[in-house]
Amino acid sequence: MIKAIVNVSLKAGVLDSQGKAVHHALDSLHFEGVNDVRVGKQIVLKLEETDKTKAMANVTKMCEELLANTVIEDYEIELV
Amino acid sequence: MKVTILQFPGTNCEYDTQHAFEQLGATTEILWHKAESIPSDTNLLVVAGGFSYGDYLRSGAIAKFSPVMKAVTEYANSGGKVLGICNGFQVLTEAGLLPGALKRNDSLHFLSKHHHLKVINNDNVFLKKLSNNDVVNIPIAHHDGNYYIDQDGLKDLYENNQVLLKYTDENGEEKNPNGSVDSIAGVCNKDKNVFGLMPHPERAMEIVLGSDDGVNMLKGFLEA
After folding, report:
1. A66 CB near a chain B CB, below 8 Å?
2. Three-state SS sequence of chain B
3. Interface ipTM
4. Could you give the domains of chain B?
5. Which of B137, B139, B168, B187 could, after both became Cys, cross-link B211 (CB 3.0–4.6 A)?
6. Closest-CA residue in chain A for B150?
7. Is A42 touching B (CB cutoff 8 A)?
8. CB contact under 8 A, A69 and B94
């Protein structure tokens, strides 16, 4: 069994309002030295597939079709 | 004229939309998302507002895989007129029938209030009863209404007169409630048969409700 961890986040250059709000809140709490905050989401999939190449191809297709909106979002896939 | 209105689990503006179009003399039908075809006598297909599939994952992201959406795409590609209001706009962008995407409002707040809009391009069936630069007063009610499109896409929109409406104040000066690129509130596709906007014209049909400016917007479809 392969576990796929998909991280979806707004593309660089697309303003991340939630990240900005969290950054502002961290400032308010006096956490110093935080240069940037980006908020995304993590989707964890447990796959029956045992071949990593096939799993990667399949999860990539899932990301393109549903898990991410590639107009505004990037995705990263990690297989473990 | 026959207006068919799509209903997904979580849609909540289908009856307002039905009421608005019937007020204008249209016959209507509400179509459940499991339908696999669009009624053949349909003159206008409306994807109504609401929270289809609870907005899970992203607004409109799950709805685009509903059985009916294949028929909607075929209907649009063969020239049928489609209007997406609010969540309907989000569904149409997710389905690739309209350019761009809707992000979370910049303020992160759900916005529910009347807002002024300026007509940018009226050379289409939707806004033909209005003039360019007309200002209308239409309610907005959304959490994810922050329209995004990249610079190349934006250039295309302007070149093809696809920008329909922008958020303004009552004098027509740009005023941006949600962070949308260039204060854009509504767009159409290149062929000008698929329309989407975040504001709710179907909620502005009688003065007693605060505005009847929605009448001249929706009427355009019935006089085609």
Report:
1. yes
2. CEEEEEECCCECCHHHHHHHHHHCCCEEEEEECCCCCCCCCCCEEEECCECHHHHCCCCCCCHHHCHHHHHHHHHHHCCCEEEEECHHHHHHHHCCCCCCEEECCCCCCCEEEEEEEEECCCCCCCCCCCCCCCEEEEEEEECCCEEECCHHHHHHHHHCCCEEEEEECCCCCECCCCCCHHHEEEEECCCCCEEEECCCHHHCCEHHHCECCCHHHHHHHHCC
3. 0.86
4. 2-222 (3.40.50.880)
5. B137
6. A71
7. no
8. yes
Provide φ and ψ at B135, rounded to 5°: -110, 130
Query: From CA B209, how far away is CA A63, in angstroms rounded?
Result: 43
pLDDT digits (tens, 9 = 90+) for A4-59: 999 999 999 899 999 999 999 999 999 999 999 999 999 999 999 999 999 999 99
- Residue A73: helix, strand or coil by DSSP? strand
CB B67 within 8 A of CB B34: yes
Distance CA B27, CA B137 (A): 26
Determine whether the interchain pair B107/A14 forms a contact, defined as Cβ–Cβ distance below 8 Å. no
Q: Out of A15, A17, A72, name the one closest to residue B101 (CB).
A: A72
All domains of chain A in start order, with CATH: 2-79 (3.30.1280.10)
User: Which chain B residues contact residue A15 at CB under 8 A?
Assistant: 106, 179
Q: Do A17 and B61 touch (CB under 8 A)?
A: no
Q: How many CA atoms lie within 13 A of B79 on its CB side?
A: 0
- Token pair listed for B87: 């969540």
The reported pTM is: 0.94
